[in-house]
Amino acid sequence: MGTWAIGPYGNDFAQDWLEDLHESKDLYFIEETLNNVLQAETTEYLEAPFGAEGLAAVETWARLLGKGGAQDEDSARADAWVADVLPKFKPRADIAEKALRALALVLAESSELRELWQDSDHYDQWRASVADMQRRLAA
């Protein structure tokens, strides 16, 4: 995985996910991505691509709720999609709950993405960015 930033959109998996997101005009793609992450509750291991896509989906969900993180070059496609979808957006409690569960799985011992970050010099900053997403969504 090519990674250039700690944030949820700063890697190849997330950018590919954002490309696919633009084909969707509703919450289906976000929910489907979260469901893929939540499968780790039964398989007991979350592979890195699903974790990275899950973080992108959760951050996009947070942006729809007005609780998004910083806007930058990496988030531009997400921000454009949110602006397009926002006028017809209706929050759903089930997706909010799935988003928080997905973040917990990304941070769990059984997460390959967490393992990869733990082996880097930037683990503490990455973990803090995921914790920040949890905080923003829970607020």
Textual characterization of the structure:
By secondary structure, the protein is mainly alpha-helical. It has one domain (12-138). The chain is built from 8 helices and no strands. It has helices at 12-21, 28-38, 40-43, 48-64, 76-85, 93-107, 112-118, 123-138. The longest helix has 17 residues, at 48-64. The protein is globular and about 40 Å long. The relative contact order is 0.18. The model has no long low-confidence stretch (mean pLDDT 96).
SSE topology sketch:
Layout: H1 12-21, H2 28-38, H3 40-43, H4 48-64, H5 76-85, H6 93-107, H7 112-118, H8 123-138
Key descriptive features of the protein:
139 residues; mainly alpha; 8 helices
Shape: globular
Instruction: Enumerate how many helices there are, as a single number.
Output: 8
Mean pLDDT: 96
Radius of gyration, Cα only, in angstroms?
A: 14 Å
Overall tally of domains: 1
End-to-end distance: 31 Å
- Helix-strand topology string: HHHHHHHH
Helical fraction equals: 55-70%
Which ranges are low-confidence, i.e. pLDDT below 50, for 5 or more consecutive residues? none
Q: Report on the biggest sheet.
A: none
- Derived from helix and strand composition plus strand pairing, the structural class reads mainly alpha
Strand content is: under 5%
Beta-strand segment tally: 0
Please summarize what this structure is.
By secondary structure, the chain is mainly alpha-helical.
